[in-house]
């Protein structure tokens, strides 16, 4: 079974030293207490180990310090709290191990993880041989922070470089809405302005409606996953990477994700213009194949290319990327892409095919990515 250290041993554990915060908050300050326990483990958390969970399942050790489980409700999860650490506990007289975990039992009777200190094998061996009471600084450390109601409010990652000097700590913040449901996972301290990585939109009853993902540097919304209120994914909306900018990937127009075996080209509107593509002397065609199983080559884009009834537009690319389309043809293609999402393909070069999709209208995307919009149909009808 895991070994619980005495108060004196806890005081000696400088690896998880006192951190600033609310004096009465869970895990702060990290002082000796009958409700705080330290577990010394002899398994490294720096590699790709698979650990035994308390429920008998297997847990991967290379997960993020905190992940968010989605379904009926978005819930932050610390994977290390689910591990059966008794399997990996060091010998009872061990003062240090490659992993040292600090727990505290809260008022709710549940054991919460306060932090994990990680050491290299050489540092552990040297510390055990030295016999010194004080422990060395860890190579890496994760600290967890809690707020009102013993609710997880953030975590911090600390690492040392190859020269032994500490790198700047990286802090993450968990914010909640006025009803107490998880609203945001941010890439900074909770005292700083919001810098969301992901936002979670719930209705007043706590049903998850949408998960909004953001670009790291630009802060632009890049993906929305809509849920049906029962924990099931209803639709995914994406902005594709179309290049690179100074602050990271440049994003294209948003579209409703459709299962397709081909790359996607998002049309901005009925007056869309074909992009510049490397195609030479190729008989290209934009087709809407009949559904698979309907006969006449149903679902086969090459059979559709040979059938005038399934061709929306065609031509030859000439000396390079010549895709002449009339306004009427563009309108026809736009309408077909809206009526049969994922059902319009453009064979633009040998072995090269795009699925043509309508862009999500700007007003709809704005409503879909608005974390204050708690309407179930904010993203429109799937």
Task: Tell me about this structure.
The protein has two domains: 245 residues, no CATH class; 100 residues, no CATH class. The chain has five helices and 23 strands. The strands form five sheets. Strands 1-6-7-8-9-10-11-12-13-14-15-18 form a twelve-stranded antiparallel sheet, with no helix packed on it. A five-stranded mixed sheet has the order 19-23-22-20-21. The radius of gyration is 28 Å and the shape is elongated. The N terminus is likely disordered.
Keywords, separated by commas or semicolons:
mainly beta, 2 domains, 5 helices, 382 residues
Summed up:
By secondary structure, the protein is mainly beta.
Shape: elongated
Class computed from helices, strands and strand pairing: mainly beta
Roughly how much helix do the residues carry, as a percent range? 10-25%
Radius of gyration based on Cα positions: 28 Å
The total strand number stands at: 23
Uncertain runs are 1-23
Number of domains: 2
Number of helices: 5
Q: What proportion strand?
A: 25-35%
In the sheet with the most strands, the strands line up as 1-6-7-8-9-10-11-12-13-14-15-18
Biggest sheet, in brief? Answer: 12 strands, antiparallel
Q: Overall pLDDT, averaged?
A: 89
């Amino acid at each position: 079974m895991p070994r619980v250290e005495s108060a004196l041993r806890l005081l000696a554990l400088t690896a998880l030293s006192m951190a600033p915060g609310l004096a009465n908050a869970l895990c702060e300050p990290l002082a000796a207490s009958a409700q705080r326990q330290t577990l010394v483990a002899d398994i490294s958390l720096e590699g790709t180990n698979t650990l035994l969970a308390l429920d008998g399942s297997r847990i991967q050790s290379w997960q993020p310090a905190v992940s968010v489980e989605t379904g009926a409700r978005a819930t932050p999860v610390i994977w290390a709290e689910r591990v059966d650490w008794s399997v990996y506990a060091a010998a009872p007289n061990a003062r240090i191990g490659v992993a040292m975990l600090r727990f505290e039992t809260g008022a709710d009777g549940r054991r919460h993880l306060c932090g994990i200190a990680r050491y290299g094998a050489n540092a552990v061996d040297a510390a055990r041989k030295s016999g010194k009471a004080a422990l060395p600084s860890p190579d890496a450390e994760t600290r967890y922070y809690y707020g009102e109601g013993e609710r997880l409010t953030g975590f911090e990652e600390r690492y040392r470089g190859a020269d032994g000097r500490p790198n700047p700590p990286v802090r993450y913040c968990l914010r909640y809405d006025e009803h107490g449901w998880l609203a945001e996972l941010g890439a900074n301290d909770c005292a700083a302005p919001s810098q969301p990585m992901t936002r979670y939109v719930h209705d007043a009853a706590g049903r998850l409606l949408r998960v909004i993902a953001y670009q790291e540097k630009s802060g632009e919304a890049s993906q929305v996953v809509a849920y049906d209120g029962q924990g099931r994914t209803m639709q995914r909306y994406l902005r594709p990477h179309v290049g690179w900018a100074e602050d990271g990937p440049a994003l294209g127009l948003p579209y409703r994700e459709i299962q397709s075996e081909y790359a996607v080209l998002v049309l901005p509107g009925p007056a869309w213009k074909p992009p510049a593509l490397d195609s030479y002397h190729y008989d290209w065609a934009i087709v809407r194949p009949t559904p698979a199983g309907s006969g006449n080559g149903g679902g086969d884009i090459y059979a559709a290319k040979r059938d005038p009834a399934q061709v929306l537009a065609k031509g030859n690319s000439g000396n390079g990327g010549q895709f002449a389309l009339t306004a009427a043809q563009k309108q026809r293609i736009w309408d077909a892409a809206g009526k049969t999402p994922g059902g319009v393909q453009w064979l633009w070069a040998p072995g090269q095919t795009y699925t043509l999709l309508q862009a999500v209208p700007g007003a709809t995307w704005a409503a879909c990515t608005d974390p204050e919009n708690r309407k179930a149909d904010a993203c429109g009808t799937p």
